[in-house]
TrEMBL record:
Its EC number is 1.1.1.205. SUPFAM superfamilies: CBS-domain pair, Inosine monophosphate dehydrogenase (IMPDH). This is IMP dehydrogenase. It is an enzyme of class 1 (oxidoreductase). It catalyses: IMP + NAD(+) + H2O = XMP + NADH + H(+). PROSITE patterns: CBS, IMP_DH_GMP_RED. Belongs to the IMPDH/GMPR family. NCBIfam families: PRK07107.1. SMART domains: CBS, IMPDH. InterPro entries: Aldolase_TIM (IPR013785), CBS_dom (IPR000644), CBS_dom_sf (IPR046342), IMP_DH (IPR005990), IMP_DH/GMP_Rdtase_CS (IPR015875), IMP_DH_GMPRt (IPR001093). Keywords: CBS domain, GMP biosynthesis, Metal-binding, NAD, Oxidoreductase, Potassium, Purine biosynthesis.
């Protein structure tokens, strides 16, 4: 006879934290959000830790090299999407590792033959006002000029006017050679009162841009996550098909941690993939696995040797797996169950395997709930897709700015490997949708605000660290009536609040 779970499966919105005693030193400034990323033995330190408990989802619409740099600056890790060619994915990883703080690859580039309208379109898409003008319109072409806002007046010029007529030409541009240090670049910027400084190779090809605002912000990232060589930390998603080719390329590019990206991780394919990694690299290569939603799934991947285990089926914002296939489990119940299994495994073996709640974070407080329920960190897709740094287009829909966001199981992403059960190499039906999410600005501002809330709630629970929160948290299920009471109610709102 089929097995029936005793209790219904619940989501985060059905829970609240009940405050505990907070001492006078329990203030947000004293909270540490440090958390392990990979497994470790009792009494030892994990080889990889994060300074904040956030990772960005293995998705085309979320995690590329730009997102990875922005998140590592704040102390978290991005898993660069694997639903692209091995070469492209490895190149993204390599760009993160080559990224010198303050030196950026120009993301706004055109040729002298483009027009003012092209400049304005690009500015709308990227949100950046400095455009490099190169011979081939790429970030590495020969630099011929720069267009900044001061170079044109929309009200006085025709949109069809060619860039070459109003750009600041190369002869008038102060540039720096490619071996310039950030300190030297910054001095040049200040001495010449510049907003941006192009860095060129000996042939005059553009290598990087240094922006005055980036140099200033670099000094404001106390939680930046570095490897031993002071490079940003980056992860990458892999699948259970082409790992024998993909993993060596990612390692060569400098990846710090891998994650098998699959909608359902309790499978022989994942065990085989982890075994191949262990046989080939021993414990030196770190690999997470998932997704699972119960004790059995956790134990299977733990025994297979996973370095961390991801939880969640069907809770993602773009996910229609539950609708399409009728599989899944409420995210809160899944986390609680897997956290128990993780603690039990730790008792038995002395090995602590971090767990990650993946998908379904709607409000910032869901992050705190996931941590309190035992998650060591959380993976978010929709959350990060709304920021400037996500790889997707910013579009104006009926007067509001939106970013595009689509699931890996949508026809748009065509990531058949994620849903692969060893059958045909194609996506037979969709498990995700293509959508818009409200544009929300910079990653830094949003992450800072979100984590301010997390720290504050932790203090209400009398906890200064994540393990302390997990030990002290008191959680209650709320009734459907009290959920209504949780938001503003019985008042007429004057404007939309930004939650
Ligand atoms: P979100 O943070 O709620 O948007 O959920 C993101 C998570 O949804 C990802 O990390 C994946 O685990 C999952 N996911 C991504 N694409 C799809 C899809 O197309 N169908 C189902 N789940 C998906």
């Amino acid at each position: 006879m089929a097995y029936y779970f005793d209790t219904p499966s619940r989501t985060f919105s059905e829970y609240l934290l009940v405050p505990g005693y907070s001492s006078a030193d329990c203030i947000p400034a004293n909270v540490s959000l440090e958390t392990p990323l990979v497994k470790f033995k009792k009494g030892e330190e994990p080889e990889l830790k994060m300074n904040i408990p956030l990772v960005s989802a293995v998705m085309q619409a979320v995690s590329d090299d730009k997102m990875a740099v922005a998140l590592s600056k704040e102390g978290g890790v991005s898993f660069i999407f694997g639903s692209q060619t091995i070469e492209n994915q490895a190149a993204m990883v390599a760009r993160v590792k080559a990224h010198k703080a303050g030196f950026v690859v120009s993301d706004s580039n055109l040729t002298p033959e483009h027009t003012l309208n092209d400049i304005l379109d690009l500015k709308e898409k990227t949100g950046h006002s400095t455009v490099a003008i190169t011979d081939n319109g790429t970030a590495t072409g020969k630099l011929l000029g720069i267009v900044a806002s001061r170079d044109y007046r929309v009200s006085r010029m025709d949109g069809s006017e060619k860039v070459k007529t109003f750009m600041t030409p190369i002869e008038k541009i102060v540039s720096a050679p490619k071996d310039v240090t950030l300190k030297e670049a910054n001095n040049i910027i200040w001495d010449n009162k510049l907003n941006s400084l192009p860095v060129l190779d000996e042939k005059g090809n553009l290598v990087h841009m240094v922006f005055r605002k980036d140099y200033d912000s670099h000094k404001q990232n106390p939680l930046e996550l570095h490897d031993k060589l002071k490079r940003y930390v980056v992860g990458a998603g892999i699948n259970t098909r082409d790992y024998e080719e993909r993993i060596p390329a990612l390692i060569e590019a400098g990846v710090d941690v891998l994650c098998i990206d699959s909608s359902e991780g309790y499978s022989e394919w994942q065990a085989k993939t982890i075994k191949w990694v262990r046989d080939t690299y021993g414990e030196t290569v770190k690999i997470g696995a998932g997704n699972v939603v119960d004790r059995e799934g956790f134990r299977f991947l733990a025994q297979a040797g996973a370095d961390f285990i991801k939880i969640g089926i069907g809770g993602g914002s773009i996910c229609i797996t539950r609708e399409q296939k009728g599989i899944g489990r409420g995210q809160a119940t899944s986390v609680i169950d897997v956290a128990k299994a993780r603690d039990e495994y730790f008792e038995e073996t002395g090995v602590y395997i971090p767990i990650c709640s993946d998908g379904g974070i709607v409000y910032d407080h869901h992050i705190t709930l996931a941590l309190a329920m035992g998650s060591d960190f959380v993976m978010l897709g929709r959350y990060f897709s709304r920021f400037d740094e996500s790889p997707t287009n910013k579009v104006n829909i009926n007067g509001s700015y939106m970013k595009e966001y689509w699931g890996e199981g949508s026809a748009r992403a065509r990531n058949w490997q994620r849903y692969d059960l060893g059958g045909d190499k194609k996506l037979s039906f969709e498990e995700g949708v293509d959508s818009y999410v409200p544009y929300a600005g910079s990653l830094k501002d949003n992450v800072n605000m979100t984590l301010a809330k997390v720290r504050s709630t932790m203090c209400n629970c009398g906890a200064l660290t994540i393990p302390e929160l997990q030990e002290k948290a008191k959680l209650t299920v709320v009734s459907s009536t009290s959920i209504v009471e949780g938001g503003a109610h019985d008042v007429l709102l004057k404007d939309n609040r930004n939650l």
